[in-house]
Amino acid sequence: MYRSVFRPGLFKGRVVIVTGGGSGIGRCTAHELAALGASVALVGRTPEKLATVAAEIADSGGSAFAHPCNIRDEEAVAALIGNILAAHGRIDALVNNAGGQFPALLKDISRKGWEAVVQTNLTGGFLMARECLNQSMQHSGGAIVNIVADMWGGMPGMGHSGAARAGMVNFTETAALEWARYGVRVNAVAPGYVASSGLDAYPPEVRGLILQAGKHVPLQRMATESEISAAIVFLLSEAASFINGAVLRIDGGRPGVRPGFPLDVDRTVEPFNGFHLASLPKVLQDREKE
Ligand code: ADE
Questions:
Q1: What is d(CA 163, CA 145) in angstroms, rounded to the nearest whole number?
Q2: Is there an atom of ligand 1 within 6 Å of 255 CB?
Q3: Which of 25, 26, 84, 125 shows the greatest Cβ crowding within 10 Å of its Cβ?
Q4: Using one digit for the tens of pLDDT, what is the confidence trace for 62-72?
Q5: 263 CA distance to ligand 1 middle (Å)
Q6: What number does the ligand 1 atom closest to the CA of 119 have?
Q7: What is the pTM of this model?
Q8: For residue range 189-239, what is the model confidence (pLDDT) as tens digits?
């Protein structure tokens, strides 16, 4: 079973949507929420990945359902939320986690590539949140957590994603203001480097950067998926009932690093890993073998 720090049954009877639930942070979060009693609606583009995670969750004693959808497609998102409501009777929370990008310098990004990344990482999250609000949460309240990124001060090599994620932070702040009247809280989580399957999606040219990434973090390592999931679960929970419009950075202190200040450590902070099915991405497994 998932080893969550939160109390058993915390999400009993709750229906939570997790986009990008077929892998990485989304898969881990879906497992933790299901372990705490939620019925999880897994959203993503690839039905097989969602079915695999739904089966894993069932094997672990939880409840999860695959709802394939392209979150860039406005009509499909409206139909998806209608279908989830019809199937599960309610929607209590949304984890807007689906995303994706490719490494490129701004000067080399085509309009098509730019728009694809903005649609996935900004527009898709907006569509998901708006439909949850209009079809359900404005009547019965809820909580939304948007997953953004450590893009503070710019995101060289992934400027399209940085721009979209920064937009998502401002969307979070506006939605927190506009939707508080309905009893809906909207917050964001900004992960830094995470040892998740998403790292394997990057091309071999950036392997060196991935392997060195932890050295640029004050805590001298990457996050585990469950260190991100725990924060998402907290923000969705009743313990966060006065937190609205916040962005929780989970990056080991990376954005505060200053040139010249050494990142030596006398003692490490042990990673928290509550996810019983966690495995290192291949790129990090290969390093361990070397
Ligand atoms: N994950 C990454 N891109 C996605 C998309 N367009 N729709 C759903 N899940 C996604």
A1: 18
A2: no
A3: 26
A4: 999 999 999 99
A5: 36
A6: 6
A7: 0.97
A8: 999 999 999 999 999 999 999 999 999 999 999 999 999 999 999 999 999
- Atom of ligand 1 lying closest to residue 19 CA: 9
Residue-level pLDDT at 289:
80
Question: pLDDT tens digit string along 3-54?
Answer: 999 999 999 999 999 999 999 999 999 999 999 999 999 999 999 999 999 9
- Residue keyed to tokens 């690093």: 257
Nearest alpha-carbon partner for 20 in 67, 58, 56, 60? 67
Q: Is 46 helix (H, G, I), strand (E, B) or coil?
A: coil
DSSP 8-state assignment for residue 193 = S
Who's near 35: CB < 8 A, 6+ residues apart? 1, 2, 4, 60, 61, 62
Give the distance (Å) from ligand 1 centre to CA of residue 46: 8
Mean pLDDT, rounded, for 111-127: 98
CA dist., res. 243 & res. 37, Å (int): 22
Round to whole Å and give the CA distance between 188 and 96: 9
Bridge partners of 18, per DSSP, are 42, 95
Tell me the CA end-to-end span of the chain in Å, nearest whole number.
31
Tell me: the pLDDT tens digits for 72-109?
999 999 999 999 999 999 999 999 999 999 999 999 99
Cβ of 100 below 6 Å from ligand 1: yes
- Is the CB–ligand 1 distance for residue 72 below 6 Å? yes
Q: Which domains are seen in the chain, by residue range?
A: 15-252+272-289 (3.40.50.720)
Q: Measuring CA to CA, which residue among 286, 288, 282 is closest to residue 24?
A: 282
Bridge partners of residue 223, in order along the sequence: 194
